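Case study 2.
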Amino acid sequence: MAEIINMPRLSDTMEEGTVATWFKKVGDTVKEGDILAEIETDKATMEFEAFYAGELLHIGIQEGGTAPVDTLLAIIGDKGEDISAHLKGSIQEKEELIEVETAKIETSKTATMPENVEIITMPRLSDTMEEGTVASWLKKVGDTVSEGDILAEIETDKATMEFESFYNGTLLHIGIQEGESAAVDSVLAIIGDKDADLDAAIIASSKTTSPSSNDSTPPKKEEIISPETKVEKTTQEISTPQAVIANNGRIIASPLAKKLAIEKGIDITIVAGSGDGGRIVKRDIENHQPTQGGGVKSFVPSGVESVEEMANSQMRKTIAKRLAASKFTAPHYYLGVEFDMDNAIAFRNQFNSIPETKISFNDIVVKATALALKQHPQVNSRWYDDKIVKHHHVHMGVAVAVDDGLVVPVVKFADEQSLPQIGDQVKDYAIRARDKKLTPAEMDGSTFTISNLGMFGIQEFTSIINQPNSSILSVGAIIQKPVVKDGQIVVGNTMKLTLACDHRSVDGATGSKFLQALQQYIENPITMLL
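Prediction:
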């Protein structure tokens, strides 16, 4: 039975897609879960996998071709199956189906949805985003909203991003409160005329949003004292003032009050709020007096066991998922080397003597690695079940530590950039990464990754491969130690590096030759300028 595969909608704003690469050709066997193609959307180039098993009988959009969402992309079926009827009728049937479905939707909307009301759903702000957390609302119910206004800051698995309105009107309803998480396409807000029938709009929104949005269960919060901390007390408490707690178990307090409570070591659950509705505000924390005579005296009193419980962020969930998948699917092996850094130190000192020029050892490593990868594209590759894709361009992922974990912005065409250009770009990425201001496009497309913990004094370590890359380079600190040069023991400067490789795509000899090329560039950095 032939299955029709249409151009998927891979982002919330996608209207058409471009086939960047086909990983299967007509006649190939396809299994459920196989990657069929890479599709370029308006936000990123994403892998599209098969949901059916069989033979690829027809490709409807060739590589480089662009077509609207729901256009015939491919047909999968039994070997030798006649698909002529599908090919002849696909366009007409699709147009008729679209007309019928559009009519149904419009009929449903006119029957139940008030006029001049727009349903805003949780957007898909990155290619791997499955759910989002509202970090903050910049508008409140009743506010006037203009097209282009920033409605909220939404935390994805990669960054916290501003989400702007595409409509004008009044903010009638907020569906996801600050600190709460929900699946993509869940009702985020409703915008419309201030006199619109809100109840009818809410009912209608449950019919028009994606069913998947109703399948996601938000994290349980009834056990959490506040979004930041939870304390288990083993002492007997005397009667104390109590904070106002919302139905969902959250303390009603301003973010500043919560921050001050932690800094001052005050248990916010025993602070009475003086704000609207009992909300705890800054002055309540500043004026709070600990209970005397054996009550709870501080947030972490002497002799009281204390734990901190924090809900996993979207970033932390994604890091856990992707690294676990990499570690348990890719057979890792490691190659360790130690390079002489005397020439690199002298080179950097001389380079930085140029006015208004400053490069780091990390910049030297990034540039040298990019040039070595150009000589050894097998290391600059991706593994697929039916092939290995070697990249002859170098898009260098540079791991950056942030509060929630780790992000990997990408220096595109790193081999073609100068050392100062690499330094400026990495610094800019690092600053914006810590402020959660990187865009998904700036974190997509890496062909190789570097993780540098040398700046933290770590001499040697191993990393988990950042899939779909085949390798990752771990860079340690430069240390002074006795070394043998020309038969004499002298004080030298060395740096240890460890290359982690996916043995499916990079053999040991291949990885070793790459490290030899890298050694030539790092120990003789002038060659990078030739």
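The longest strand covers residues 471-485.
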